[in-house]
């Protein structure tokens, strides 16, 4: 794998890896030559830098365990401080029991942390963390009461808002009522940035005991989208996964919203060449959404699994085959937008059986993929017979 070289060819400014030794020496190695493709390498930060309209976004993927959590946070904070970047968002991949420890690992948590490891499965270990940080932009906080849940910022071309850890306040409500409250709260929070619900380009939705009520959740989402005019504008990309939460809420959500300031910024849904629209089987999300701004493009691909063009699950009981088809589908979406695996800035792979996580690394090695910044999560996918799902964001500088 030729990490930096390949990604520069793809229009990305920099892709870097750091290790504790490099950090202690005050150096970051920006050019690496490796013979193998490795998914989620240990003891390494994977940082992808993406410039857009005077702002630089840094996507960081890191391995972490319960014993190394403090060290990883310190390393990420040091790396971002060296770039004059402020952390705006974080995913943590571990069971809900690790949430207090993660918060205590930082003197003051000044950004939303969204827990992604599925207590619906085991949630017994921490497998990693992802951060999004920004430099060159003034971050304006979005508050849910006294709790900071995200930031919005302006460029010359658009306003952006990234929110996380959005949850209902009243846990005595039914699951469907909590879902409705979360959607209503998303809308209210966006109002702090002078944005509307229909400005949402991407959602991440984590449902406790997802397999028990995914159909009911979809009915709530679809009705809310109808009432807000989402179907008339653009259905956002999304990931819907079975994951626990810090306090046992039925639903926790994150979102990315974009409000263009002129016609030179385009936000539009991207179809999957190898799958039907999810709306065809009553799941209200786009397969992918692209954000085109002067000089750069961000493609955010929804959670994707082993589903054939007609909408049915295929390769039932065979995780290896499900991975193969899923990666083929994702690659087809990338190619449809003149991108490839080298453009990946972050990804999350979800496994129903955590012992099978190595199969993704096996696939990447077998197919000579470049090193991907992938975090691994143990979670239920949206159907009983789906064993693997992956979401992926890709960037390209024009």
Number of domains: 1
The biggest sheet amounts to: 6 strands, mixed
Based on secondary structure, the structural category is: alpha+beta
Strand order of the largest sheet: 1-2-3-6-4-5
Rg of Cα set: 19 Å
Cα end-to-end separation: 23 Å
The helicity comes to 10-25%
- Report strand %: 25-35%
Number of helices: 9
SSE ordering: HEHEEHEHEEEEEHEHHEEEEEHEHEE
Q: Which consecutive residue ranges, at least 5 long each, have pLDDT under 50?
A: 1-13, 19-38
Shape: globular
The pLDDT mean sits at 84
**Quantity of strands, as a count:** 18
Helix and strand arrangement:
Layout (H helix, E strand, L loop, with lengths): L2 H7 L4 E5 L1 H5 L20 E8 L2 E8 L6 H14 L3 E8 L5 H6 L8 E3 L12 E8 L4 E5 L2 E8 L3 E10 L7 H17 L8 E8 L2 H19 L1 H4 L3 E6 L8 E10 L5 E5 L17 E6 L2 E9 L14 H18 L7 E8 L6 H9 L7 E5 L9 E10 L1
Parallel strand pairs: 4-5, 10-11, 16-17
Antiparallel strand pairs: 1-2, 2-3, 3-6, 4-6, 7-8, 8-9, 9-12, 10-12, 13-14, 14-15, 15-18, 16-18
Helix pairs in contact: 5-6
How would you summarize this macromolecular structure in one to three sentences?
By secondary structure, this protein is α+β, with helices and mostly antiparallel strands. It has one domain (3-397).
Descriptive labels:
six-stranded mixed β-sheet; 398 residues; alpha+beta; disordered N terminus; 33% strand; single chain
Descriptive account of the structure:
The chain is α+β, with helices and mostly antiparallel strands. It has one domain. Helix content is 25%, strand content 33%. The chain has nine helices and 18 strands. It has helices at 3-9, 20-24, 69-82, 99-104, 175-191, 210-228, 230-233, 319-336, 358-366; strands at residues 14-18, 45-52, 55-62, 86-93, 113-115, 128-135, 140-144, 147-154, 158-167, 200-207, 237-242, 251-260, 266-270, 288-293, 296-304, 344-351, 374-378, 388-397. It has a six-stranded mixed beta sheet with strand order 1-2-3-6-4-5. It has a six-stranded mixed beta sheet with strand order 7-8-9-12-10-11. It has a six-stranded mixed beta sheet with strand order 13-14-15-18-16-17, with helices on one face. Helix 5 packs across helix 6 (210-228). The chain starts with a helix and ends with a strand. Residues 1-13 and 19-38 have low confidence and may be disordered.
């Amino acid at each position: 794998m030729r990490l930096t070289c390949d990604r520069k060819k793809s229009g990305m400014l920099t892709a870097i890896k750091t290790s504790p030794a490099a950090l202690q020496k005050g150096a970051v190695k920006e050019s690496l030559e490796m013979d193998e493709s490795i998914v989620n390498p240990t003891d390494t930060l994977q940082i992808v830098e993406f410039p857009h309209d005077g702002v630089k976004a840094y996507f960081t993927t890191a391995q972490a365990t319960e014993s190394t959590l403090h060290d990883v946070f310190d390393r990420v904070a040091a790396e971002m401080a060296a770039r004059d970047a402020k952390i705006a968002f974080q995913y943590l991949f571990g069971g809900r029991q690790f949430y207090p420890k993660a918060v205590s690992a930082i003197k003051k948590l000044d950004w939303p942390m969204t827990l992604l490891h599925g207590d619906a499965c085991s949630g017994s270990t921490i497998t990693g963390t992802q951060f999004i940080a920004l430099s060159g932009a003034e971050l304006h906080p979005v508050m849910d009461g006294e709790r900071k849940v995200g930031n919005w910022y302006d460029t010359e071309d658009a306003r952006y808002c990234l929110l996380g850890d959005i949850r209902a306040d009243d846990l005595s409500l039914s699951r469907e009522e909590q879902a409705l409250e979360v959607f209503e709260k998303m809308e209210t929070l966006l109002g702090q940035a002078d944005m509307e619900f229909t400005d949402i380009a991407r959602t991440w939705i984590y449902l406790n005991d997802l397999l028990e009520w995914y159909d009911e959740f979809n009915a709530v989402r679809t009705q809310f989208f109808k009432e807000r005019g989402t179907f008339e504008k653009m259905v956002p990309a999304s990931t819907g996964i079975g994951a626990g939460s810090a306090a046992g809420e039925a639903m926790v959500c994150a979102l990315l919203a974009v409000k263009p300031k002129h016609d030179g910024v385009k936000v539009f849904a991207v179809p999957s060449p190898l799958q039907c629209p999810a709306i065809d089987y009553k799941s209200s999300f786009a397969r992918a959404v692209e954000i085109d701004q002067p000089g750069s493009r961000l493609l955010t691909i929804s959670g994707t699994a082993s589903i054939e063009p007609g909408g049915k699950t295929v390769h039932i009981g065979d995780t290896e085959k499900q991975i193969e088809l899923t990666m083929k589908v994702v690659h087809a979406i990338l190619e449809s937008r003149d991108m490839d695996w080298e453009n990946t800035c972050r990804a999350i792979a979800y496994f129903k059986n955590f012992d099978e996580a190595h199969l993704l690394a096996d696939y990447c090695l077998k197919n000579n993929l470049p090193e991907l910044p992938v975090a691994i999560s143990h979670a239920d996918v949206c159907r009983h017979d789906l064993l693997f799902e992956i979401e992926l964001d890709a960037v390209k500088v024009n």
